[in-house]
Amino acid sequence: MTYTIPQAAGWDSPAMPSKSRSWLQSLKRFGRLSYDIGIDLGTSNTVIHIPEQGIVVREPSILAMQAETQEPLAIGAGARQMLGRNASDVRVERPICNGVVAEFDLAKLMLQHFLERAGARVLNPRIAVGCSSGATEVERWALTDLVLQTGARKAYLIDEPIAAAIGAGLPVNQPMGNLIIDMGGGTTEVSVVSLLGIVANAAIPIAGNSLDQAVKDYFRHTHDLRIGELMAESLKIKYGSAVPDNALDNTPVEVVGLLLRTGLTGTVKIQRGDLRAALAKPLSAIVKTVKQVLGQISPELMSDICDRGLLLTGGGALIPGLDALLRQEMGLMVHIVENPLDSVAIGASSALQNRHYENVLHLAS
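Given the sequence above, the corresponding structure tokens read:
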């Protein structure tokens, strides 16, 4: 919606009072504000994009509340810091699990909070939210109902692989094969997209959170050491790798945790290369899934992908060496999206703004 402001005599002239000019400029900026919002409601993070403003929210999809009163204590980054540190009367919850709504009321509270932070709820906007292409009808209904209950004028779903491809600038409306690997927190989705449709697809519940769990399991089974979720994620980001690196693999790493035999705090020394071994199993499952999807497509689409390579997006794209592992295993060029955490949200809002993409938006009935 655009407000047309009549040009009164003397407005914006040098003689116009500064306060009036400031008010007029603010009103003009408001008139250009978009009423279209794209959301990536992920297991690990929620990202909100508004055209002309960019990314306005990028927060962990976590909520902390009093167990007895259900009163929220923190949402987003503040709640994440409570993981493993909360008292028994404080619940720390992830209302989105494997890309679908697990706790409707908590998800609604969380999304309302994020939209208020973005200044979006007062605009009565149209909202497009990314959805796993493998979601059931019940899961899709829950997601659209969630968005409508947060104040959206209209709610649309867009399949995440297509949203990610649009957000990355791929020509998905052309007769050309595009291979997208979206590795989020709860799921990894591998898709071949052409002519605004998904030709082949597979989603597995192995992604960033699975890698964190693999790190925790490694220390528990190999060193009899228990570490928390935040520590495991930090080690994955800082020292994890998908391929050997002779220059860094011998880097010493000290890890503090709880010794299971004694129940006391202890320190374990490992080398960076040890973490790669811990991550190998979940990463190999992702590689296997990519190969399975490529086995479902036509030679023509395979030719396109061989020429253009594959696109890696989602938080998992930030794991050092993952692109090299895929290149080594698949024999294809691998391109990492410039902002892998944001591509789905950007693509969702772009689809609302571009009539050429209207067929990929599914309006809630």
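The longest strand covers residues 197-204. Try to locate this feature in the token string yourself.
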